[in-house]
Specification:
There is one protein chain. The chain has 470 residues and is of the alpha/beta class. Helix 11 runs parallel beside helix 12. The N terminus is likely disordered. The N and C termini lie far apart (72 Å). Among the domains are: 58 residues, no CATH class; 201 residues, no CATH class.
Length: 470
């Protein structure tokens, strides 16, 4: 094999000579391939040392231009200079992925325009841009060649005004908009031009009031809408939507093809009652359901409708319930109506109004008529306490879940624990919660422990003695 000399340009020698290193003489396409496999920082350094790599750097396929990647402690002017130098040395040819994070407010719009014009060229597949609030993302950047190649478009913190004149994005499968100023009508224009779209994620897009997802999106299977607080209506006609995540204020939800829905995550006020009352008929084929609410006005109703295929259920109850503390025992309605349920996770946060304690109650514990559940295997309750309704719910599950393999009762409402690691601390809890911990243990021993079958593993997680000394 033949070798060629590589001049490093580093005058580190005794007689002023320049050090050279011998590298193999390989075809240009092999050098380009080797260079493309390097992380960006290593690839940039190699380009500074080798003319062969300098040539292939101009076609390097993946550029991550973020504050930590370029230099964590530089001023914004130097960051601008670094980005400008990198993009001027790159020909834009062969670029597949561009991640650009300006990390702050920029007044020199012309710089960003020239950067995007140089980098966003036909052949690019992944574009992830975090810009600034007043910057208008130019639709002209999505030229015909770019629209033919781009697969993943992520825009953060900018203005985006697509119109009906925008041509089709033939290969776009993933679209994410975060804190982007775009109206519902403008988004609908974009969606009509994205027929291959499989995933749509919207975060804090506060100009959207009416979200319309057209039926032409035959491939759309995943929809996320979080923090769009002016949103009032979600109308989805996509025929194959199977996973949806929504968090915000309560909205009018209309899913034309809801029979395909397999997984739903919803977080908004009164969602627990809504889920029990409406979802069995709207989404009868749900397999995974996660619901969370900070405000529940009424308890969960006991109804005849069932979740026949539901296997995994997560319920998160926040700190505000009106007009009285939430009746956890009413959640047995989900237990009774879900014959295929395998895992149940309940996160019970303490309410503003104090629950009735199982020790302070003169009445007997409520029970259900005999109801054998054959599938439930894993139950975890976080934020467990001596609240009477919570003890009643737990006793009911233990008594009737004949296949139960593991029951975990955790005093903490969140799973953050130190696990014995010195540099990590458990989630902070109040002194009142520490006092409640001893009552929780007593309630478990008195009402629950003897009802647990020998085949069921009972795990009781008390506060960590290191992080929460009593």
């Amino acid at each position: 094999m033949s070798y060629v000399g590589c001049n490093t340009g580093d005058p580190d020698s005794r007689h002023g000579e320049t050090l050279s290193y011998l590298i193999p003489c390989l075809p240009e396409d092999i050098w380009c391939h080797i260079h493309s496999l390097m992380p960006m920082r290593a690839a940039a350094r190699a380009a500074c040392l080798s003319r062969a790599f300098l040539h292939s750097w101009r076609c390097y396929p993946n550029l991550t231009l973020t504050w930590p990647m370029l230099r964590p402690k530089v001023c914004s002017e130097e960051l601008t200079w670094n980005i400008d130098r990198i993009l001027r040395n790159h020909l834009g040819i062969g670029l597949k992925t561009l991640e650009l994070n300006l990390g702050g407010e920029y007044s020199t719009f012309s710089y960003v325009d020239s950067w995007l014009q140089a980098a966003v060229t036909p052949g690019i597949e992944n574009l992830n841009l975090m810009l600034y609030k007043k910057y208008n993302f130019p639709c002209s950047l999505l030229s015909d060649g770019v629209r033919k190649s781009i697969r993943d478009l992520q825009l953060h913190t900018c203005v985006f005004r697509p119109t009906s004149e925008l041509g089709p994005l033939r290969r776009l499968t993933s679209l994410g908009l975060t804190s982007v100023r775009i109206t519902g009508d403008e988004l609908e224009c974009l969606l009509f031009n994205s027929l291959a779209l499989e995933q749509l994620d919207l975060y804090s897009c506060k100009e959207i009031i009416f979200l319309k997802i057209p039926c032409v999106l035959q491939q759309l299977s995943h929809l996320t809408v979080v923090g769009c607080y002016r949103l009032q209506v979600i109308e989805c006609k996509a025929p194959n939507l199977s996973y949806m995540e929504y968090s915000g204020e309560k909205v009018n939800l209309s899913l034309v093809h809801s029979l395909k829905m397999k997984r739903l995550d919803m977080h908004h006020p009164d969602v627990i009652c809504y889920a029990r009352a409406e979802l069995p008929s709207i989404m009868p084929n749900l397999e995974t359901l996660e619901i969370g609410s900070d405000i529940e006005v009424v308890n969960t109703p006991m109804l005849l409708t069932k979740f026949l295929y539901l296997k995994h259920l997560t319920i998160q109850i926040g700190v505000k319930t009106f007009p009285q503390p939430y009746d956890y025992f009413s959640l047995v309605s989900f237990f009774v109506s879900s014959p295929s349920l395998e895992t149940l996770l309940l996160e019970a946060a303490p309410d503003d109004a104090k629950h009735e304690s199982v020790f302070g109650s003169s009445s007997h514990l409520r029970q259900l008529p005999e109801h054998q559940h054959n599938c439930l295997k894993i139950v975890e309750i976080r934020g467990f306490s001596s609240a009477k309704s919570l003890v009643e719910l737990t006793c009911c599950i233990v008594k009737n879940a004949v296949s139960l393999e593991r029951l975990t009762l955790d005093i903490l409402p969140y799973p953050e624990r130190c696990s014995g690691e010195a540099n990590i601390t458990c989630w902070p809890i109040s002194n009142a919660a520490l006092e409640e911990a001893s009552r929780m243990v007593a309630a478990i021993k008195m009402y629950i422990e003897d009802k647990v079958a020998p085949t069921t593993e009972l795990i009781v997680l008390e506060p960590c003695a290191r992080c929460h000394p009593r």
